[in-house]
Design brief:
The structure holds 2 protein chains of 2 kinds.
Chain A (H helix, E strand, L loop, with lengths): L4 E3 L2 E4 L5 E6 L6 E8 L3 E9 L2 E5 L6 E5 L5 E5 L8 E8 L12 E2 L3 E5 L1
Parallel strand pairs in A: 2-11
Antiparallel strand pairs in A: 1-3, 3-8, 4-5, 4-9, 5-6, 7-8, 9-10, 9-11
Chain B lengths: L3 E4 L2 E5 L4 E7 L6 E7 L6 E7 L4 E4 L2 E6 L4 E6 L8 E8 L3 E3 L3 E6 L1
Parallel strand pairs in B: 2-11
Antiparallel strand pairs in B: 1-3, 3-8, 4-5, 4-9, 6-7, 7-8, 9-10, 9-11
The chains are: A mainly beta, B mainly beta.
C-alpha cells in the first residue's frame, strides 16, 4: 500500500506571497490532518478534514486554510506569507471514523519544507 | 486546551542500555497516547500507542506505561541499538493530537 505523499517536497517563497501544498492520503483513509513543525514551537496541529469537511482546527490565524476533495486528497494554503511561516508542513492520514476521535494511528508523509525569504 | 510536556530534551545512552522518556498531560479527557519516532528528513512514524483503559503495553524492546491518575506516561526502550537514534515525540489525543516537544535520543556504539 502506498504511503502518504506530499508535493512539493521543497518550496521557497518571499514574504507576502501565497503558497499551496498538496497531500495524497493512503488509499481508503478519509481523515487528513495537517501539522506545522518548527524548531521553536515543535509539532503543532493545524486542522483536520474528513469527507471534505473541516472537522477540527488548531490555533492558527485565518491565513492558513485547507480543503479536501472527494478523493480525500487535501490541499493547504497559506496566504500573505510571513518569515515565521518557514517550517516543515506535515500531512497525516488516518482511518479515524466519523466520530471524530483521534484514536487511530496517524500515518505521516515526508513533509514539505517551506522557506520564506 | 491540552498541554503535553516531555523530558528530557536530549538523551545519550550506550548501546545495550535502556532509555526512558517521560511525558505529562493536562487534559483528563485525553484517551489515546501515541509515541512517534522521527528520523532525519522523514515524517514521524508511530512506534507504539496506548489507550486510557490500559496501564501498560509492550512490543518487543519497546514498552509504554500510563498513569491516568498522575496524568503521565513513559516510553521505555531496552537493549538500545544505534538505529534507535532519532527524535521521539509523545502525544495526547482528544479531538486532535497534541505533541510533546521531542527527545533527541543518541545511542552510542
Amino acid at each position: 500500500k502506498a504511503g502518504v505523499t506530499q508535493t512539493p517536497r521543497y518550496l521557497i517563497k518571499t514574504r507576502g506571497q501565497q503558497v499551496t501544498l498538496s497531500c495524497s492520503p493512503i488509499s481508503g483513509h478519509r481523515s487528513v490532518s495537517w501539522y506545522q513543525q518548527t524548531p521553536g514551537q515543535g509539532l503543532q496541529f493545524l486542522f483536520e478534514y474528513f469527507s471534505e469537511t473541516q472537522r477540527n482546527k488548531g490555533n492558527f490565524p485565518g491565513r492558513f486554510s485547507g480543503r479536501q476533495f472527494s478523493n480525500s486528497r487535501s490541499e493547504m494554503n497559506v496566504s500573505t506569507l510571513e518569515l515565521g511561516d518557514s517550517a516543515l508542513y506535515l500531512c497525516a492520514s488516518s482511518s479515524n471514523l466519523a466520530g471524530g476521535a483521534f484514536d487511530n494511528e496517524q500515518f505521516f508523509g515526508p513533509g514539505t519544507r517551506l522557506t520564506v525569504l | 486546551g491540552e498541554n503535553v510536556e516531555q523530558h528530557p530534551s536530549t538523551l545519550s545512552v550506550q548501546e545495550g542500555d535502556s532509555a526512558v522518556i517521560k511525558c505529562t498531560y493536562s487534559d483528563s479527557a485525553s484517551n489515546y497516547f501515541p509515541w512517534y519516532k522521527q528520523e532525519l528528513g522523514k515524517g514521524p512514524q508511530l512506534i507504539i500507542d496506548i489507550r486510557s483503559n490500559v496501564g501498560e503495553k509492550k512490543d518487543q524492546r519497546i514498552a509504554v506505561t500510563l498513569n491516568k491518575t498522575a496524568k503521565h506516561f513513559s516510553l521505555h526502550i531496552t537493549e538500545t541499538q544505534p538505529e534507535d537514534s532519532a527524535v521521539y515525540f509523545c502525544a495526547a489525543s482528544t479531538r486532535q493530537l497534541t505533541f510533546g516537544s521531542g527527545t533527541q535520543l543518541t545511542v552510542l556504539p
